[in-house]
Design brief:
Elements lengths: L2 E4 L5 H10 L4 E3 L6 E5 L3 H11 L8 E3 L15 H10 L4 E6 L6 H4 L4 E5 L4 H10 L3 E3 L13 H8 L5 E4 L10 E4 L6 E4 L5 H8 L5 E2 L21 E4 L12 E5 L11 E4 L6 H15 L6 E5 L6 H12 E3 L2
Parallel strand pairs: 1-8, 4-6, 5-9, 10-11, 12-15, 12-16, 13-14, 13-15
Antiparallel strand pairs: 2-3, 3-7, 4-7, 5-6, 9-10
Bound molecules: threonylcarbamoyladenylate (TXA) and magnesium ion.
Threonylcarbamoyladenylate binds next to strand 5 and strand 6.
């Protein structure tokens, strides 16, 4: 089992830094999901991330920095869009894909000539990066293609045998992985929807067109449509669609309610108030709690696809066995 230390506790960060400097990996909190970090310029340590997660090496990682000045270590061009976006959304759940500096090891970017970077909002994440003095490459701290962890305990349950230390910074407040925006070309492209919505980005980038990439036709490695999946099959359900007659072995995952009547084995709502941020923050913990309880199926209600609902539906779609 890994040791779980409260990130705020005395000595916790320095133990994490010692491990990172030795070329080891450490799990740490961010406001989106927990990350599994390694020092970015240590290719061997980064290789360990792929080993622990059993992640294919064609899936590039996100690099976490504490200050915008750290961008110079990672990218060759800091175009003016970055400053406008950083002012509004950094620190925060927005990842920018930029031209890669040659010193960033290829294993970080899966051989691409671009690098994905963000400044996390979680103060413990930034404190760790500052204490290390180097950017931290980190994917979500879950086994490849499982649901991302939003609590230290989630990491312990799945990766606890493979890593030494998990820094605990409480439950991730956003609960969905960051929005990924590519700035490699003149027109910006959203590669993954997240808490920072297309409308938010448009309000800063003005006329710059934003295209939503289809997850079924990945233009970048890692944008696979089957991702974040629970072991219990999850099916998407639109209100008013017919439901199976016997629901006694089915779990219902709804947004706001009301819960459709029936003899559900279990039912849960993500936000009785119909509040998107609350639903996003709860989603992965609820999926984990429903998974592995022996339900035949999880029937998940479709969310309205506007604003943050787009990102939540994206994760449900990737989890679902029936894409709709
Ligand atoms: O919120 C987050 O982004 C979390 C926390 C830990 O920061 N991290 C995260 O990492 O979700 P991960 O590995 O689960 O997802 C990273 C995704 C990859 O699937 C990959 O497609 C994309 O980022 N990515 C990374 N580098 C890229 C690049 N150069 N070009 C396009 N996509 C890239
Ligand atoms: Mg992930």
């Amino acid at each position: 089992m890994a040791r779980i230390l409260k990130a705020q506790d005395k000595g916790a960060l320095s133990q994490a830094v010692t491990l990172l400097k030795q070329g080891d990996v450490v799990a740490f909190p961010t406001e989106t999901v927990y990350g599994l970090g390694a020092s970015v310029f240590n290719a061997k340590a980064v290789a360990r991330i792929f080993e622990v997660k059993q992640r294919p090496s064609f899936d590039p990682l996100i690099v976490h920095i504490a200050h915008i000045s750290d961008l110079a270590k990672l990218t060759t061009s800091v175009d003016e869009r970055i400053h406008r976006l950083a002012e509004c959304f950094w620190p925060g759940p927005l990842t920018l894909v930029l031209p890669k500096h040659p010193r960033v090891p290829d294993i970080v970017t899966a051989g691409l000539d671009t690098v994905a970077v963000r400044i996390p909002a979680h103060p413990d994440a930034r404190a760790l990066i500052e204490a290390l003095g180097e950017p931290i490459a980190a994917p979500s701290a879950n086994p490849f293609s499982y649901v991302s962890p939003t609590q230290a305990q989630h990491v312990q349950e799945q990766l606890g045998n493979a890593i030494e230390l998990i820094l605990d910074g409480g439950a991730s407040q956003v609960g969905l992985e960051s929005t990924i925006l590519s700035l490699v070309e003149e027109s910006s492209v959203i590669l993954r929807p997240g808490f920072v919505t297309a409308e938010d980005l448009r309000s800063v980038l003005g006329d710059v067109p934003l295209r939503r990439i289809s997850t079924d036709k990945p233009s970048a490695p890692g944008q696979l449509s089957k991702h974040y999946a629970t072991q219990t099959p999850l099916v998407l359900w639109r209100p008013n669609e017919a439901l199976p007659k016997d629901l006694s072995d089915q779990a219902y995952l709804g947004f706001q309610g009301p819960i459709p009547s029936g003899n559900w084995a279990h039912s849960v709502l993500l936000s009785a108030e119909g509040n998107f941020p609350e639903a996003a923050a709860a989603l992965f913990a609820v999926l984990r709690a429903l998974d592995g309880q022996g339900f035949k199926q999880i029937i998940a209600e479709c969310m309205p696809e506007k604003g943050l609902g787009i990102a939540i539906m994206d994760r449900l779609q990737r989890c679902a066995v029936n894409k709709i």
